[in-house]
Amino acid sequence: MGVDVANLHIVSYPAPVLRRRAEAVPAVTEEVRAVARRMIELMFEADGVGLAAPQVGLAWRMFVCHVPESEDPEDERSLTSHPVSATREPMVCVNPTLTHPERDLVAYEEGCLSLPDIRGDVRRPSAITINATGLDGKPFSLRAYGLLARCWQHEFDHLEGVLILDRMTQPSKIKNRQAVRSLEAEARLL
Ligand code: ZN
Q1: Contact 133, 95 (CB under 8 A)
Q2: C-alpha 163 – ligand 1 centre gap (Å)
Q3: CA–CA distances in Å: residue 190 to residues 131, 167, 176, 184, 185
Q4: What spacing in Å lies between the alpha carbon of 154 and ligand 1's midpoint?
Q5: Whole-number Cα distances in Å, 97 to 8, 27, 47, 129
Q6: 94 touches 62 (CB < 8 A)
Q7: How far is the CA of 114 from the centre of ligand 1 (A)?
Q8: Where on the phi/psi map is residue 113: left (φ > 0), alpha (ψ -120 to 50), or beta?
Q9: What is the pLDDT along the chain (190 residues), one digit of tens a residue?
C-alpha cells in the first residue's frame, strides 16, 4: 500500500474519495496502526470527535472517534452507564458494522471536518451497537447512545460515501445551500 502517513491531511468536500464506498481493511498491520495514530492526531488538531479514513484520502473501512464525557450534554455518568455515550480514550474501529438501531430518531446539529462552515440537523436512531476490529486485531462489540452513538453513525456513513449533506433536514439543507456552493466553487479554482 505504501501510505505516506506523515503527509496525511483532512480533505474537504467535494473530494471524490468522500463519495466512494470504502474497502475492507484486510489486516491490522503496522501501517494501519500508524494511519490510525495519525488520524487521531488530526482529529484532535481539528477539535473533532470523529474522523473516518476517507476524510484523509484513504478509501479504507476504518474510523477513529473520541467523545469525552464533558462533550455529552445528555448524561454526566455516561462512562459508567450501560450502554455508554462517551469514550475514555480515542477509539479505533476497523471494518465496523452497525446493528440494532433504536427505533426512535433524535435530531441534533452535526458538523463535519470535511465540510467547513456547514452545520445541520440530522435525525438518527438514539442508540446503536457497533461490531468492529480494534487496533489489537481483536473483534469487539459495544452499544452506545447519545453523542457517541451519533458519532459512530456519522463516521460509518463516511465509509459508505454518505455525507450529512444527504441526511440533513430540509430546513438545514436550505440554510447551508450557499456554503455548499462555496465549497464546490473553491474546489473548481484549485
Ligand atoms: Zn464527517
Answers
A1: yes
A2: 7
A3: 39, 27, 22, 10, 9
A4: 6
A5: 25, 16, 25, 8
A6: yes
A7: 6
A8: alpha
A9: 589 999 999 999 999 999 999 999 999 999 999 999 999 999 999 999 999 999 999 999 999 999 987 655 555 555 556 678 888 899 999 999 999 999 999 999 999 999 999 999 999 999 999 999 999 999 999 999 999 999 999 999 999 999 999 999 999 999 999 999 999 999 988 7
Collapsing DSSP to helix, strand or coil, 37 comes out as helix
Active centre residues (catalytic): 155
Residue 178 φ/ψ, nearest 5 degrees: -65, -40
Whole-number Å distance, alpha carbon 155 to ligand 1 midpoint, is: 6
- Which residues, in sequence order, are CB contacts of 131 under 8 Å at separation 6+? 96, 97, 98, 99, 139, 140, 141
Q: What is the pTM of this model?
A: 0.93
Write down the pLDDT at residue 145: 92
- Residue whose C-alpha cell is 450557499: 178
Look-up of cell digits 498491520: 29
